[in-house]
Amino acid sequence: MADRPTVGVVEAVATKALEELDAVGDAEALERWRVSYLGRRGELTAILRGIGTLPPEARRQVGAAANAAKARVDEAMAARKREFSREVTPALLAEDSIDVTLPGRPVPTGRLHPTTQTVREICRIFASMGFDAVEGPEVEWDRYNFEMLNIPKHHPARDMFNTFWVDYPDRNGEQSVLLRTHTSPMQARIMEDTRPPVRVVVPGKCYRYEATDATHEWQLTQVEGLAVDDGITFADLKGTLYEFARQIFGEERRVRFRCDYFPFVEPGVDVAIDCFSCGGAGCRTCGRTGWIEIMGAGMVHPNVLKGVGYDPAVYTGFAFGMGVERIAMLKHGIEDIRHFYANDLRFLKQF
């Protein structure tokens, strides 16, 4: 091409470009063609850039011819693109076609953890008996976890709870914040803010500093229950827990109440059901006793009632607490509590 473009040069380049365009066979070749003629260093582009060097009269003539040529080339290129698009689109549609008559692919569905399922079942049973479900803090004050439950500082009953203390000194420089060891602190919290009658269950996580084995975990889930009103008796406690045991373990279950000690109830009892493996005859599951303990319970201690401003001469109540994992283990025949937190899908998919 000459240094100064002419009308003849413009027409020759345009004709050559259109002839080569007819021979282009696919989109990749079309892109190479476009770069050679219309790219930054393409032949038509170079002509358009060189027009400014021409004399005024030649500039008008060559400029008009160059613009017209570029318009023809652009139009021809667009038409060629449409041809390729029409050829490619049916192939793509055939490749991506969906047979709407086929059944849909199954969507995997999640499920609740067995501990969560058991918590919900427990709360549902007590809701049918008039109990509300509430939750409380997992990081708790010593005051609620121990002192207001009739366990003052240096009380020997504190040895029953292997406690995780939080380094948060109070005014006396003593540690008074902890990870709650049971859900019982909510007894005091609820009664502080509520006048009788009170009927609640409290599900939640608890923490104890102890070694793990088949029946113990450092993190566990409990459900606490509390009922306070004028005239509540031990018979009400027995009737409530007997109904709970029959609903969750089966109508044929027998229930045993036996004296036990808990500092926040008086009298205290442990609640057991007859062994579902041996029917009470004695086997390995029940330790040859014929009974399996499921929870602790008792009548709310008068000191606990006084501590929250209730008059124990007027109001009485009962409380109970159970380990949710233990209930699930008994209900489903699970032998090791560690399965609940091992994240083994083979175990979890069974529920």
SSE arrangement:
Elements: H1 7-23, H2 27-38, H3 43-50, H4 56-95, H5 114-127, E1 132-133, E2 139-141, H6 142-145, E3 164-169, E4 175-179, H7 185-193, E5 198-207, E6 219-230, H8 234-249, E7 255-260, E8 265-274, E9 291-300, H9 302-307, E10 315-323, H10 324-332, H11 345-348
Parallel strand pairs: 1-5
Antiparallel strand pairs: 2-4, 3-4, 5-6, 6-10, 7-8, 8-9, 9-10
Structure summary:
With 351 residues, this protein is an alpha+beta fold.
Can you put this structure into words, describing what you see?
The protein has helices spanning 7-23, 27-38, 43-50, 56-95, 114-127, 142-145, 185-193, 234-249, 302-307, 324-332, 345-348, and strands at residues 132-133, 139-141, 164-169, 175-179, 198-207, 219-230, 255-260, 265-274, 291-300, 315-323. Strand 3 (164-169) and strand 4 (175-179) form a beta hairpin. The mean pLDDT is 86. The chain has 2 domains: 7-95; 114-348, BirA Bifunctional Protein, domain 2 (2-Layer Sandwich). With 351 residues, it is an alpha+beta fold.
Number of helices: 11
Spatial ordering of strands, largest sheet? 1-5-6-10-9-8-7
Strand content: 15-25%
Task: Give the strand tally.
Answer: 10
Structural class: alpha+beta
Helix content: 25-40%
CATH class of the largest domain: Alpha Beta
| Rg of Cα set | 41 Å
User: What sort of overall outline do the alpha carbons produce when their principal axes are compared?
Assistant: elongated
Low-confidence regions: none
Helix/strand order: HHHHHEEHEEHEEHEEEHEHH
